[in-house]
Amino acid sequence: MLFPTSLVGSYPQPNWLIDRDRLKGRLPPRVRARELWRVAEELREEAFQDATVLAVHDQHEAGLDIVTDGEVRRESYSNHFATVLQGVDIDNPGTALDRSGEPNPVPRVAGAIRRSSGVTAQDAAALRGLTDRRVKVTVPGPFTMSQQAQNDHYPDTRAMAMGYAAAVNEEVHEAFAAGADIVQLDEPYLQARAEAAKEYGIEVLTRALHGAPGTTAVHICFGYAAIIHERPEAYSFLPELADCPVDQVSIETAQAALDCAVLQRLPGKTVVLGVLDLSDPAVETPQTVVERAERALEYVEPERIVLAPDCGMKYLPRASALGKLRSLTAAAAELRRRH
Predict the structure, then answer these.
(1) Exposed, middle or buried, 35 (CB in 10 Å: 0-12/13-18/19+)?
(2) Cα 30 from Cα 179, distance rounded (Å)
(3) Least C-beta-crowded within 10 Å: which of 34, 53, 66, 131?
């Protein structure tokens, strides 16, 4: 099928599950933020499963071809995994600058990073039981986690990133074994910290993806539209992913009006093309989405494009997110007719 459709990862969590006003009123949590949940801890797992059912239902209703769990169990895209690793002192967090330039509490790495137990495999298995469509799960990328941590153990950040990469690699293999068709690493800090990324980002990603037995993706973006409002005109780190052993590269083009000529420098990669602007809750028309996709089709063959939102949708109202997904699938149908 040409132009399959997918979320990047997250979908709006129900208001009965999480305090969405508090979520929007702070930086994305890097350490645990259990105060955001509205449901008592002893009922939370059942609530998570119910919210996952709702997220999958909306994706089915909108007609998406590739389904995620909406990341409904997560306070943020990264802390769900980053805070369960051995070597991280979650009781005494550190501090690091967020990509917005503001200080944010972060995991403090006080020992060697090890994975004591995974979280993604359980999420993948639960999702696999809810749909017969292709499923994608997401894991925070090792480079990004290394930039969102205080290093009190390793000789340098590069060594810490490689420690994260080994743990992520185990998580990736378990996710595929649990039924995932696609495993995506979220790496927004490849763009935010491009200088360090150019030094060792590909090395770290290569370690994290080593031996992956299924389709892999890397998502690289400019940050949540609800938090980061200004977009540069181009990626500061993107063509470098041509040298990474990853199958899909997920980017945003809608809000940033990205010059898609850069996609010529990713030969052989499937491009997960962000064509929904998440800075505006208004629902785009299918024609607007088609026009955004056509910009990329000057440089990428139709066979190498997956249509998606720019980034995770968790900060949007649910009705807005669902409406945007309907426009996405309607645009995909029109593009299939044309191509």
Answers:
(1) exposed
(2) 27
(3) 34
Contacts of 130 (CB under 8 A, 6+ apart): 52, 53, 56
Kindly report the CATH number that applies to the domain delimited by 20-338: 3.20.20.210
Name the percent of the chain lying above pLDDT 90. Answer: 90
Domain ranges of the chain: 20-338
How many angstroms separate the CA atoms of 145 and 107, rounded?
Answer: 9
Instruction: Return the number of other C-beta atoms located less than 10 Å from residue 332's C-beta.
Output: 26
- What is the spatial distance between Cα 58 and Cα 82, in angstroms, rounded to a whole number? 28
Grade residue 284 by pLDDT with cuts at 50, 70 and 90: very high
Spatial neighbors of 84 by CB under 8 A, at least 6 apart, are 116, 117, 119
Its pTM stands at 0.96
- The pair phi, psi for residue 273, each rounded to 5°, is -95, 115
pLDDT score at 285: 98
- Residues in Cβ contact with 131 at an 8 Å cutoff, skipping those fewer than 6 apart: 56, 60, 67
125-148 residue pLDDT tens: 999 999 999 999 999 999 999 999
SS3 of 289, please?
Answer: helix
Phi, psi of 6 (to 5 degrees): -160, 155
Going by C-beta distance under 8 Å and a sequence separation of 6 or more, which residues neighbour residue 62? 322, 325, 326, 328, 329
